[in-house]
Write a structure and sequence with these properties.
Number of strands: 13
Shape: globular
Oligomer: single chain
Number of helices: 10
Largest sheet: 5 strands, mixed
Low-confidence stretches: 1-8
């Protein structure tokens, strides 16, 4: 398997050396080769919907690529189809892969009494939400920001959260860990190989992924492990669902505090006339979805819109 990074870090090259050929890792846009994150990095790729510098065209010897930011806390994946179309797999797609992995292994074990969830923000793509719902997982909403997502995730035994920019993780409660250890022991005693494998995989995921903070390197290794386990390429993963087209923009304002939102930021509460206008707008388009929220750092209002096709966004 090939991986080319949209932005590099010394730790990634060190990791490549330690992999012993199990996974080829080639770093592009290394430190010292240009300004940090300029034309590359997870944020640049995800927000701009463009490939990173050096990957503007298909590379014959690169099966798939991922981009991480300079401090390696965010990651997104991308690839070119056989037709030469560039495709992005963002944080929503990473969350979907994590969620499907957890659901499948828990189903094999038949564990009851464990709460499982995927925590999302208002920015989550509607197609991703529909897919997660089809898995039978709980879908709590949280305010934008990893600290809010993580706090909400702690209410569940096993929880996944990723922002669209690829900042996120998979966490296990102490209760879930004990249940998995018990399930593995019981399966070993019963010589139930499928259950032993399922419990072992979940426990290995717990050990591999960084549960304290977004960690692009551990997230990358987790994704590669799941893809390898399933025998998938990025096209197979991308096929879990098709993103609804969306657009994001921001509007400078004199005072962002004028716009107020509900706790999960999915609806505005002030000015009073704003949400009714947004509701009327959404009704005009198939699968229409839009919301606005004040920025937490600058005097702008952030806007996002989605619909069933690009021409309607």
């Amino acid at each position: 398997m090939d991986c080319a990074f949209g932005v590099g870090a010394p730790q990634i090259e060190a990791l490549a050396a330690r992999m012993g050929g199990a996974l080829e890792l080639r770093v592009a846009n290394k430190p010292g080769e240009g300004e940090l994150n300029l034309g590359c990095g997870a944020e640049h790729v995800q927000k701009g919907r463009v490939p990173p510098a050096g990957y503007e065209a298909p590379l014959a010897d690169c099966g798939r690529a991922c981009s991480v930011d300079g401090d390696a806390d965010r990651i997104v994946f991308h690839y070119y189809t056989q037709q030469g179309e560039w495709k992005l797999l963002d944080g929503d797609k990473i969350a979907a892969l994590c969620a499907s992995f957890v659901r499948d292994e828990i189903a094999v074990l038949g564990l009851e009494g464990l709460t499982t969830a995927v925590v999302q923000t208002a920015y989550a793509n509607g197609a991703a939400t529909s897919y997660m719902r089809s898995l039978g997982l709980q879908l709590p909403m949280a305010k934008t920001g990893v600290k809010f997502l993580h706090h909400e995730a702690l209410h569940y035994d096993i929880a996944v959260y990723f922002e669209a920019n690829g900042h996120g993780t998979l966490i296990f409660s102490d209760k879930a860990t004990r249940a998995l250890l018990d399930a593995k022991q019981q399966a070993e005693e019963a010589k139930d190989a499928p259950k032993v494998k399922a419990a072992s995989r979940l426990l290995a995921a717990r050990q591999l992924i960084n549960q304290a903070v977004g960690d692009a390197i551990s997230d990358m290794l987790f994704v590669e492990a799941v893809l390898g386990m399933r025998g998938w390429q990025l096209e197979d993963w991308d096929g879990l669902y098709t993103d609804l087209p969306s657009r994001q923009t921001k509007l400078p304002v004199m005072d962002r505090a004028v716009v107020e939102c509900t706790e999960d930021e999915t609806r505005t509460t002030a000015p009073a006339s704003l949400q009714p206008a947004l509701d009327a707008l959404m009704k005009r388009f198939p699968q229409g979805r839009c919301f606005v929220r004040p920025s937490g750092t600058e005097d702008v209002v952030r806007e996002i819109g989605r619909a069933s096709c690009r021409e309607r966004v």
